[in-house]
Write a structure and sequence with these properties.
Blueprint (H helix, E strand, L loop, with lengths): L3 H11 L7 H8 L8 E4 L6 H16 L2 E6 L2 H15 L6 E4 L15 E5 H9 L8 E6 L11 H14 L4 E6 L5 H8 L2 E4 L7 E7 L2 E4 L4 E3 L6 H11 L4 E4 L3 H15 L5 H15 L7 H11 L2 E4 L5 H13 L4 E4 L2 H4 L7 E4 L3 E4 L3 E4 L2 H8 L11 E6 L3 H12 L13 H13 L6 H9 L2 H6 L3 H16 L3 E4 L2 E4 L1 H8 L4 H11 L7 H10 L11 H13 L16 H18 L4 H8 L3 H21 L7 H16 L16 H9 L5 H6 L2 H8 L2 H10 L1
Parallel strand pairs: 1-6, 1-7, 2-4, 2-5, 3-4, 5-6, 8-17, 11-13, 11-14, 12-13, 14-17
Antiparallel strand pairs: 8-9, 9-10, 15-16, 18-19
Helix pairs in contact: 1-3, 8-9, 9-11, 10-11, 10-12, 16-19, 16-20, 17-19, 22-24, 23-24, 26-27, 30-31
The protein binds a DNA duplex through helix 4, strand 3, helix 5, helix 9 and helix 13.
Length: 706
DNA sequence: GATGGACCCGTCTAGACAGCATGTC
DNA sequence: CTAGACGGGTCCATC
């Protein structure tokens, strides 16, 4: 048994602080170390993670129970995992990371005390009925305002509802950015509510207009004349020897602004910095075998101390960029919202240049206050800055007033439930029934009454109808069945739920492929592209349309599902799907990323993420095919296609990439040098292989494996 | 005749979770 | 019902 005092001391020591901050102190007083559940609503940098550490130590050391720490982003989960391990491994705490690309539901997780997960991964672990669930003593849900997200909120909501049911005695810590209705969430979770505005470094918010930056209740900067608006803000920041992040509405804007600013920022660099940046710039340019235009552009900007940051950037480049910013080499980042939620990139000043964002069907409208707050969130680095700044840019006088009343004096939005969307109901009802958690329609209704939706609106009659419809659909697709008033998942239904596939997509695949005999690569890609998992489809320019239609025509005879007519409403969406199929086709024809990007305007980062999703979809289809009668030929085709897509290779290289350490480029090199099969490689002389692969160690490994 | 700025008009729009097989935190 | 920045093309002034 470890005293409360001792736990607090350990945590204080490991975090290298002198004492608990006001938020943390209140949490302790409210009983975080007595197993009290809490909803904590406070700013980004207010030290919420430390609360998890307190509860985790208490639960593990005193009760021999586990902590599960739920994160909305894999990057965030990784960060927490590294952090926890570094601090608490020495006290005997075993920390594990469990996210999509990292491991599976194996019982091995039961050996660990603290398990850091993404929300969806934990949902999946429950679907696989992980045996250690009942050893959980505390569940921490980070960034719980994600509940409001139409795509990903429902998973978190269902997850927490389930946890409350199966672990009624577990402690729940729900962390949120400052939100309007933390009390409602507290009521739902049966938790006390801790609201605070505390920040370790004060944040001043303001508006920039007419050559000035006015910080509310603080000071005013006069910007130099003769420079563009963004340039003058940058100059003002750099003269103070600080860094800043611009938030813009589109990727294209981030790239354009970064290039524009690089001309100015360059003059502020010191000799040493230029050297360092040159190295990073080269690394960025050479991330891919053949750099794409975007890679070159980013490299150019980095050289001058500026980067643009959005989801089209490759993963490795992101890492390089983040490190360089943390070191202070990069002076300015121009970013989309990609940076607002993600990782911990402390800076001095955040400038929201585009407070409006385009929403399809809505035009361009103001961002939610919460989102802007997130962008401001990390401004002001403890130990470096005495304060931080969050600045909105106004385009005219009217906007000055609007921004002021909306963002600076206005109220935060409420968090609401998004659980009533069709896709959420589809996915979660199937999952809840398939793991035997709910066994009848009545039980489903009862369950939904206990969700945040049910608690917030006090009744679910609106939902009831939708739930009935959903059950009907799942039944008609053969994923659920009814026996004596009880609901049950069919074998295939259960598998679909475990594969984490949207039942709608699963049904699409099954119906399209059942009895199909004549598909080819392109048309199979077209089918994949119809799935919601790959939406939104890439956008289509008039030039693309021409190219894509050509491709469709070429493969016309291999279409195994109905193509919409040119005059149909769905035709344009079909073309966009076919565009993705075209991109994939080029990819497996071994066209370079640069070529694909140039022809069809897709960023390298986007290509890779689509490939990854498709790999998962193809795997899932193959798994489904074990339970439904597909033609043998189609199965073979799918299997081959999966390998080709993952590596981006022609058919002839398929056998070669099964060797470890051999991917797209090396396989091509081997093939072109006459080593086109495993047996030929076996027979080949070592020195010949070394000549082709340019690596002694690789060849040695290869030979020893064969 | 080349260069470059002003202006018009069409185009296009953020992000990122999950399976599994590996060998290991 | 609702936007706005970019970039390519065009025209025209200037040297």
């Amino acid at each position: 048994m470890i005293e409360k005092k001792e736990i607090v001391e350990k945590v204080i020591f490991e975090n290298q602080i002198e004492k608990l901050n006001p938020v943390q102190e209140r949490a302790v007083k409210m009983g975080i170390l007595e197993g009290e559940s809490l909803v904590v609503s406070s700013p980004t940098s207010s030290g919420k993670t430390l609360l998890a550490e307190l509860a985790g130590l208490n639960v593990t050391l005193n009760k021999r129970k586990k902590m599960v720490y739920l994160c909305p982003l894999v990057a965030l989960a990784r960060e927490k995992y590294e952090d926890f391990k570094r601090k608490y491994q020495k006290y005997g705490i075993k920390v594990a990371l469990s996210v999509g690309n990292y491991d599976s539901s194996d019982p091995w997780l039961s050996r660990f005390h603290w398990i850091v997960c993404s929300n969806e991964k934990f949902d999946s672990l429950i679907r696989h009925e992980a045996p250690w669930i009942n050893e959980i003593g505390v569940v921490v849900a980070d960034e719980i305002h994600l509940l409001d997200d139409p795509n990903r909120g429902p998973t978190l909501e269902i997850l927490l509802t389930i946890l409350k049911e199966i672990l009624p005695r577990a402690q729940i810590l729900a962390f949120s950015a400052t939100i309007q209705n933390a009390e409602e969430i507290g009521e739902w979770l049966g938790a006390k509510v801790l609201k605070s505005d505390f920040r370790p470094v004060p944040l001043y918010k303001g508006i920039s207009f007419d050559g000035k930056i006015k910080l509310f209740g603080f000071k005013e900067y006069k910007l130099s004349e003769g420079l563009g608006l963004e340039e003058s803000i940058v100059e003002n920041t750099l003269l103070m020897k600080k860094q800043l992040i611009f938030f813009l509405s589109s990727r294209r804007n981030t790239e354009a602004l970064a290039e524009k600013l690089s001309k100015l920022v360059f003059h502020f660099l010191e000799e040493k910095e230029i050297e360092g940046l040159k190295k990073i710039s080269q690394a960025i340019e050479n991330t891919l075998e053949i750099p794409t235009e975007q890679c070159k552009k980013l490299a150019r900007c980095v050289e001058k101390g500026v980067v643009f940051y959005h989801s089209g950037i490759l993963f490795d480049q992101r890492i390089l960029v983040e490190e360089a910013y943390k070191k202070g080499l990069i002076k300015v980042i121009t970013s989309t919202t990609a940076l607002a939620y993600g990782l911990n990139l402390p800076n001095f000043r955040a400038v929201v240049r585009d407070a409006k964002r385009y929403y399809p069907g809505l035009g361009s409208i103001y961002l939610p206050v919460l989102e802007v707050e997130q962008m401001f969130g990390r401004s002001g680095r403890p130990k470096y800055d005495d304060w931080g700044e969050g600045i909105l840019v106004a385009k005219n006088e009217k906007e000055v007033e609007e921004l002021e009343s909306y963002y600076l004096k206005g109220e935060l939005e409420e968090i609401s439930s998004k659980i009533s969307t069709e896709s959420a109901l589809r996915i979660h009802i199937l999952s809840l029934v398939s793991n035997h958690f709910l066994k009848s329609e009545t039980e489903i209704f009862e369950f939904f009454k206990k969700t945040f939706f049910g608690k917030k609106y006090r009744e679910i009659s609106v939902l009831k109808e939708k739930i009935e419809e959903t059950i009907f659909l799942l039944e008609s697709w053969g994923f659920l069945e009814r026996k004596e008033g009880k609901l049950n998942a069919t074998k295939i239904g259960r598998r679909i739920s475990q594969l984490y596939l949207d039942p709608l997509s699963a049904n699409l695949f099954i119906e399209s492929l059942k009895g199909c005999q004549k598909a080819n690569e392109f048309t199979l890609f077209c089918l994949l592209a119809k799935a919601g998992e790959l939406k939104p489809s890439p956008s289509l320019t008039t030039k693309d349309a021409f190219l894509v239609e050509e491709e469709i025509l070429k493969n016309e005879e291999f279409f195994f599902f109905q193509m919409p007519d040119e005059f149909d409403e769905e035709y344009e969406e079909f073309l966009r799907e076919a565009k993705l199929a075209t991109i994939f086709s080029f990819w497996i024809e071994e066209k370079t990323e640069g070529e694909i990007m140039e022809k069809l305007k897709i960023t390298p980062g986007e290509l890779h993420s689509r490939v990854e999703i498709s790999d998962w979809l193809l795997y899932s289809i193959l798994e489904i095919s074990k339970l439904v009668p597909f033609e043998q030929e189609i199965k073979k085709e799918l299997k081959k296609l999966r390998v080709r897509l993952r590596y981006g290779i022609k058919e002839e290289l398929v056998p070669l990439v099964s060797l470890r350490g051999i991917g797209r480029v090396r396989a091509r090199a081997l093939f072109d040098s006459g080593f086109g099969s495993i047996s030929k490689i076996k027979e080949a002389k070592t020195e010949d292989l070394v000549r082709v692969l340019k690596s002694q160690t690789l060849v040695k490994k290869l030979k020893s494996e064969l």
